[in-house]
Write a structure and sequence with these properties.
Distance between the termini: 66 Å
Strand order of the largest sheet: 1-5-4-3-2
Helix content: 25-40%
Radius of gyration: 23 Å
Number of strands: 10
Order of helices and strands: EHEEEEHEEHHEHHEHEHHH
Number of helices: 10
Mean pLDDT: 92
Bound molecules: manganese (II) ion
Shape: elongated
């Protein structure tokens, strides 16, 4: 793999300084430095051209591209542009569903899609994952499960209600993403993805603070990128989104059977009506619903 980027003089010096920690190679004519980091060779020319070669060329180059969220001089914001060609990288992606739904779990999935599997995933027709019907997703999810390394954290309401007073919803999401990502990294080891893409729900610094404050033993941070609408930037996030949705739907049907009434998705008025009906039957909502939602009080008022 080879990647060439163009930098200004100041950045070139910054790079020469940074790479001076690695072992130097024979410096070609016109070049300021040439080093080997083990998995990549980096050569910086006085013209401002910097050439990256080897297995991690793209990832290494991405550190220095000004639109990269790993750039050393650009602060990260929500929805920051990803490196060019990112869609063709081997990426571990994650997404969650259910945070806005009163009934059912908060479900987070992580899926690894290597470059070799990109075509196969593309053929599933999931690029527009947000427009797929539930039935279509139910057909696709088993194929994702059978073929791609993945992990799902399915936080059912009872557990959710125990954790919720201690961790806000975004902190629970952060813990779930981080845990799922770690599980998939273990499954694919010794392979490491070129990048990890988290469908963004919080600022990057906030995300990592949530994990630190929750005293997570292992915090996945290397090559982690964040963007909103992540499913549009890499198929791994689209696949994770579908997997999470299907696990959520499955949990919803099981809970509906237990409750003896179809539990609706979302947090609208229909949800209040059904919750009120469960209360009338003397059923404890903590097994079925995220109790801190305003729907709980609304349902009580309907009695
Ligand atoms: Mn999302």
């Amino acid at each position: 793999m080879q990647k060439v980027i163009q930098v200004n003089n100041q950045k070139l010096k910054q790079m020469a300084h940074y790479y001076s920690q690695f072992s130097s190679k024979k410096v070609p004519t016109g070049a300021l430095f040439s080093i080997s980091s083990g998995s990549a060779t980096v050569t910086g020319y006085y013209s401002g051209k910097v050439m990256f070669q080897g297995k991690t060329a793209s990832a290494e180059a991405a550190k220095w591209q000004s639109n990269s969220i790993h750039s050393l001089d650009t602060p990260k914001k929500m929805g920051t542009t990803l490196p060019a060609d990112f869609a063709n990288w081997s990426v571990l992606g994650s997404d969650e569903v259910g945070a806005g739904a009163y009934f059912g779990p908060l479900t987070t999935a992580a899926v690894y899609v290597s470059q070799e599997n990109l075509e196969w995933v593309r053929a599933l027709g999931i690029a527009d994952s947000k427009t797929l019907t539930d039935d279509r997703m139910k057909k696709i999810a088993p194929q994702i499960i059978a073929k791609l390394p993945h992990h799902v954290v399915n936080l059912m309401p009872e557990k959710y209600n125990q954790l919720q007073p201690l961790h806000n919803v975004n902190q629970m999401k952060a813990i779930s993403h981080n845990f799922s990502l770690g599980k998939v990294l273990d499954k694919i080891f010794p392979i490491t993805p070129q990048a990890i893409l988290i469908d963004q729900f919080a600022q990057q610094s906030t995300y990592f603070n949530y994990l630190k404050n929750a005293k997570q033993q292992r915090i996945i941070h290397e090559n982690v990128y964040f963007t909103t609408k992540g499913e549009q930037y890499h198929l791994s996030v689209a696949a994770a989104s579908i997997l999470a949705r299907v696990v959520e739907l499955d949990a919803m049907s099981k809970l509906s059977v237990e409750a003896g009434i179809k539990l609706p998705i979302g947090a609208g008025r229909e949800v209040d009506t059904v919750a009120a009906e469960l209360l009338r039957r003397g059923i404890d909502l903590k097994h079925y619903a995220k109790l801190h939602f305003a729907n709980t009080k609304k349902a009580e008022r309907l009695l």
